[in-house]
Amino acid sequence: TSKPMVLFLGPWSVGKSSMINYLLGLDDTPYQLYTGAEPTTSEFTVIMHGPKLRTIEGIVMAADSARSFSPLEKFGQNFLEKLIGIEVPHKLLERVTFVDTPGIIENRKQQERGYPFNDVCQWFIDRADLIFVVFDPTKLDVGLELEMLFRQLKGRESQIRIILNKADSLATQELMRVYGALFWSLAPLINVTEPPRVYVSSFWPHEYQPETHQDLFLKEEISLLEDLNQVIENRMENKIAFIRQHAIRVRIHALLVDRYLQTYKDKMTFFSDGELVFRDIVEDPDKFFIFKTILAKTNVSKFDLPNREAYKDFFGINPITSFKLLSQQCSYMGGCFLDKIEKAITRELPDLLGSLGLGKKP
């Protein structure tokens, strides 16, 4: 029942908050998001639907399990003080939730924020249906914090939309140069064959400057709203696809843990030191063909395999002896765990997607 989430990311003062004010018509109302030329948004602001205009503290949002923000408590009280919710009785918010983020300031260290900024961004990125990365003509340089952010967006390229805001502040020739410079800056960060969709316009309630490409800006604005509408319409399809993607990751993880466990059991003898044997396997899984065996014996893509370094941490927290082999996780009545997840990935979830397509209203 949760609504699609649209996340706004980008450098400071590029017009993220102004864009939300504009899309929701909050300008000149008591609840317009504060905007200005200096870095203004220091909080993560969640704009959602409610019967009347009101502000909700982050601590209250995290405590309310019905709102699905309770997992954010793990980032600490310092972060919850930087989280704010705004309820607005707006038709669009009945179908979508907006999240405004603090602007990226390249010369500021993470520690200065008082909470793990990148980890919090990752939490929202993992749950976002659409991610608007906003730039303006004066802030095209890519520093460490923005580079880190694009690394976190890896795998979510289909949800990213780049927005070149404040486009009517430039003459046509300048705008073309800035557009090229933006792609040149982002090319090393977005590693896909197809370039992301870029919207060029000025998203605020003022008239476009004269002597600029006003028709183009208006068409781009309409395209962006159509894009947003498409995400709302395809909400259920996106959720099922996300669940299937997650199921594939769970299956790969289960197969890898099973392989580590099988290798450990094969190498153990009566006189072996279990800890030393397992440390040897974790330090160099390639020596025991752990990852290669998964690729050879199952229909797993090598591009879906997780980072092998992650398993050092994983087994540091979860001792290998606490696991059972997948072949032992079967029962006569209940069947096998692995078969169930295979069936969900190959048949049940695709069938569910197909049934949605058949009954879909235009």
Give the structure's gist in a few sentences.
With 362 residues, the protein is α/β, with parallel strands linked by helices.
The SSE order reads EHEEHHEEHHEHEHEHHHHHEEH
Radius of gyration: 24 Å
CATH topology of the largest domain: Rossmann fold
Based on helices, strands and strand pairing, what is the structural class?
Answer: alpha/beta
Instruction: State the CATH architecture of the largest domain.
Output: 3-Layer(aba) Sandwich
Oligomer: single chain
Biggest sheet, spatial arrangement of strands: 3-4-2-5-1-6-7-8
Number of strands: 10
Distance between the termini: 20 Å
Features of this protein?
TRAFAC_Dynamin-like_GTPase, 8-stranded mixed sheet, membrane, alpha/beta, Dynamin_N, signal, Topoisomerase, domain 3, 13 helices, Sarcalumenin, Rossmann fold, 2 domains, two-stranded antiparallel sheet, 362 residues
Explain what the structure shows.
It is a single chain. The protein has two domains: 3-211, 3-Layer(aba) Sandwich (Rossmann fold), CATH 3.40.50.300; 241-356, Topoisomerase, domain 3 (Orthogonal Bundle). 44% of the residues lie in helices and 12% in strands. The protein is built from 13 helices and ten strands. It has helices spanning 16-24, 58-63, 77-80, 110-113, 117-127, 144-152, 172-186, 214-233, 235-267, 274-283, 290-297, 309-317, 337-358; strands at 5-9, 44-49, 54-57, 83-88, 97-100, 130-135, 160-164, 197-200, 330-331, 335-336. The strands form two sheets. Strands 3-4-2-5-1-6-7-8 form an eight-stranded mixed beta sheet, sandwiched between helices. The chain has a two-stranded antiparallel sheet with strand order 9-10. It is elongated. The chain starts with a strand and ends with a helix. It is a peripheral membrane protein. Keywords: Glycoprotein, Membrane, Sarcoplasmic reticulum, Signal. Residues 1-241 form the Dynamin-type G domain. InterPro entries: Dynamin_N, G_DYNAMIN_dom, P-loop_NTPase, TRAFAC_Dynamin-like_GTPase.
